[in-house]
Amino acid sequence: MLPTADQPVTSDTPAVIGIDIGGTKTLGLVIGGDAEILVEQRRPTPHSAMAVVDMLADLVSDLIAAADGRVEVRAVGVGVAGLVDLHGRLRRAPNLVGADELAVRDLLEPRVGLPVFVDNDANCAARAELESGVAVGVQHAVLITLGTGIGGALITGGSVIRGAAGMAGEPGHMLVDPNGPLCVCGLRGCWERYASGAGLAYLGREAAAAGALSAVGSELRGDLDALRGEHLTRAARLGDPEAAAVLDTFAWWVAVGMANCAALSDPEMIIVGGGLVRDWDLFGPRVRATLGEVLVAGAHRPVIKVEPARAGEAAGALGAALLARHESGLQRPA
Ligand SMILES: [Zn+2]
Questions:
Q1: Using CA atoms, how far apart are residues 288 and 305, in angstroms rounded to an integer?
Q2: How many angstroms separate the alpha carbon of residue 83 from the centre of ligand 1?
Q3: Over the stretch 233-259, which tens digit does the pLDDT of each residue have?
Q4: How far is residue 306's CA from residue 191's CA, in Å, rounded to a whole number?
Q5: Residue 262 pLDDT
Q6: Does residue 143 sit in the same domain as residue 105?
Q7: Mean pLDDT of 175-196
Q8: Strands 90-92 and 72-80, sheet pairing
Q9: What is the CATH number of the domain that holds 323?
Q10: Is residue 161 classed exposed, middle or buried when 0-12, 13-18 and 19+ CB atoms within 10 A define those classes?
Q11: Nearest 10 degrees: CA dihedral of 317, 31, 141, 303?
């Protein structure tokens, strides 16, 4: 909601811009000193790397114009799916065509005349959960986003950990099965081959090929390449026991990767975000139950809370803005 005349935003308010570059759409927003959203705009994400930089420069300019002099924007944060180094360079981005080794910060800063900070989208989402979502006050957590692939973030001591090169918290490509299917990253048997939206579809195709998903197979007239996670979740909601069994297998794989994350970082909470959270009721209880069974010393350690993310669709952009505010040294008003 925009501030009204009786809720003035002074030009002293340290406003920052946050932008979340998604595979199909990009969300940009301006936040004020209390992390309140003052302006937000959406753009389609272009399909070439340089067009993305052009779009970002235009979006920053339009957001500043929309803020209409009510605040002075002091920095820009950008969240993007992929491996981002500590110099704001997107090193590897399987979902953005031609964007590998894209120097986002160095290309954007001279265009917008503001300091630019870039991080992985899940790291940004984790900042939003710490600020105003499910992880307010939490010191040690892991965030996992279950979408087409799996993103992640590690929170230790209340801060998002970036690692030596900026690439910490990428659990999607932990190897869980050396003989598993080929991954988009070029390796084999990564966790996200089983526990993402694409992984759910893979498990469904395996079940259908083995004759253990007859209703969904009939619906698709045998075209198993067309099988998507939605086919399974919809069938499970309609009471199909075979679809429910695939979701149980899926939940097991989700829990296995979570256990690996937990064995490494001993979190008090695991936050689950991404598009699959919509169907959390179908597989979440099984994930929680399995985690206690497959995590080392599961019966001898505090129960790890597993909670759906709460910061919503704007989490990535909000977290990118929080990154910019933190990294540029801007503080909230007391
Ligand atoms: Zn992989």
A1: 8
A2: 12
A3: 999 999 999 999 999 999 999 999 999
A4: 18
A5: 96
A6: no
A7: 94
A8: unpaired
A9: 3.30.420.40
A10: middle
A11: -110
Distance 204 CA to ligand 1 centre (A): 19
Give ∠ CA 216-220-226 in degrees, rounded to 5.
105
Q: Are 220 and 231 in contact (CB under 8 A)?
A: yes
| Same-domain status, 255 and 152 | yes
CA of 210 to the centre of ligand 1 (A): 25
Report how many domains make up the chain. 2
Question: What is the Å distance from ligand 1's center to 159 Cα?
Answer: 26
For the chain, the average pLDDT equals: 92
How many angstroms separate the alpha carbon of residue 267 from the centre of ligand 1?
A: 24
Q: How far apart are CA 32 and CA 39, in angstroms?
A: 10
303: left (phi over 0), alpha (psi -120 to 50) or beta: beta
d(CA 248, CA 253): 9
Tokens of 102: 């894209």
List the domain range (segments joined by +) for residue 47: 14-128+313-327
- pLDDT value of residue 13: 60
Q: Are residues 19 and 85 in the same domain?
A: yes
Query: Are 263 and 154 spatial neighbours (Cβ–Cβ below 8 Å)?
Result: no
| Centroid of ligand 1 to alpha carbon of 14 (angstroms) | 39
Task: Please give the distance, rounded to the nearest whole angstrom, from the Cα atom of residue 181 to the centre of ligand 1.
Answer: 10
226 C-alpha vs ligand 1 centroid, how far in Å?
22
Q: What is the mean pLDDT of residues 84-93?
A: 94
Cα 190 to ligand 1 centre (Å) = 5
- Weakest mean pLDDT among 8-17, 212-221, 296-305, 319-328: 8-17
The verdict on 219 and 196 lying in the same domain is yes
Measure 199 CA to ligand 1 centroid, in angstroms.
12
Question: Structure pTM?
Answer: 0.89
Write out the two tokens for 146: 């279950």
Q: How many CB atoms lie within 10 A of CB 238?
A: 9
